[in-house]
Design a protein that fits this description.
Layout: E1 14-17, E2 20-23, E3 26-32, H1 42-54, E4 59-65, H2 75-81, E5 86-88, H3 111-115, H4 119-128, E6 132-140, E7 145-149, E8 163-166, H5 171-176, E9 180-183, H6 189-195, E10 200-203, E11 218-224, E12 227-234, H7 235-239, H8 243-263, H9 265-278, E13 282-285, H10 288-310, H11 312-322
Parallel strand pairs: 3-4, 3-5, 8-9, 8-10, 11-13
Antiparallel strand pairs: 1-2, 5-12, 6-12, 7-10, 7-11
Helix pairs in contact: 1-8, 10-11
Length: about 325
């Protein structure tokens, strides 16, 4: 095997058994940014289970694991170079490869609204420039990103000078608000809070609150942006599939499966809010003026940064699909 984790894609065609043509199944290996047991992985699990059921006997995804198999920030590159076939990752984890990738978060629209703009088709074109196939998205529109703190604030201006852990997409926002953003892996957040290395962090509200009881005291509302996890496929592995099968998988993922995945998060977010209450997090509800300013700064700061890396024309095109 060229790579230990590379799947073996079965050759196109058919095998003859007892005089009957038996179609052969194509298999790909996948890795995810989060472990199987993480709440955020529920969307990945649904994606894999439904694709495998829909294309049983033709196409199968083997979920090899998460960060324990491969570091999250290197998963997209591993797919590009053929060490892995598929990754379910964060848009900002590979913005060095595809600068437009992090735009997926920079919206307040839901999946259906974005789907109708041609955004996903355009993203596939931009990813193809780096030999990546952008198959689609595991959307999570309801999973907005909130600021979690170990000290209370009264206004948005009180974030000035606070050290806030972010993932790369959120860095321009925290900087524009006067905070000191630090990019850290999710697994290091608790220790950083416990040691006082950071004053807070930005994250979605699902599935982890009880584990942070004692180091988080407050959560700021409203949240910003939308969550979505791109599904990237190795170009060569994808090309091994017959054209008809590629088309049917893409149509199923984008038109049938993704909208249904987007609907599962409302219940999960509500459960996450309950966990935060149980863990003793106090809600800080920003005033109407501050809330509006937060959302405006979130959009403007992020898209200004996107224009620097993608160019003004591409940024304007994608912003028109996601925001305007």
């Amino acid at each position: 095997m060229k790579h230990l984790l590379k799947s073996v894609a079965l050759a196109a065609g058919a095998a003859w058994i007892g005089g009957a043509a038996i179609a052969q199944e194509y298999t790909m290996n996948a890795v995810t940014l989060a472990p199987r047991q993480a709440d955020i992985s529920r969307g990945f699990a649904m994606f894999i289970d439904e694709v495998n059921a829909e294309f049983e006997g033709e196409f199968k995804i083997n979920w090899r694991g998460g960060p324990e198999v491969m570091p999250p920030f290197g998963q997209a590159e591993a797919v590009r170079n053929g060490a892995m076939d598929i990754t379910f990752t964060s848009p900002s984890y590979y913005s060095g490869l595809v600068p437009a990738s992090s735009t997926m978060n920079l919206s307040f629209k839901d999946y259906d609204d974005i789907r109708g703009t041609g955004y996903y088709e355009r993203m596939n074109e931009l990813h193809a420039e780096q030999d990546l196939v952008f198959l689609g998205e595991v959307p999570a529109t309801d999973l907005a990103f909130h600021v979690f703190l170990n000290t209370p604030i009264e206004t948005l201006d009180d974030l000035d000078g606070l050290r806030i852990r972010v993932f790369p997409t959120l860095l321009p926002l925290v900087k524009a608000l006067g905070g000191e953003p630090l990019v850290l892996p999710m697994g290091e957040i608790y220790t950083a809070m416990e040691r006082g290395t950071i004053d807070g962090f930005m994250r979605g509200t699902v599935g982890w609150a009880e584990q942070f009881q004692g180091v988080v005291t407050h959560v700021v509302y409203p949240g910003v942006y939308r969550a979505g996890f791109p599904v990237l496929v190795n170009q060569n592995a994808w090309n091994e599939l017959p054209e008809d099968l590629r088309g049917r998988i893409t149509t199923f993922v984008r038109d049938d499966l993704a909208p249904r995945i987007d609907e599962i998060w409302a219940e999960d977010v509500a459960e996450g809010v309950g966990q935060m209450e149980k863990a003793g997090f106090e809600v800080i509800e920003l005033s109407g003026e501050d809330a509006a300013r937060l959302r405006e700064v979130a959009i403007e700061s992020a898209w200004t940064e996107i224009a620097k890396t993608t160019g003004d024309d591409v940024a304007a095109e994608l912003r028109g699909m996601l925001v305007d």
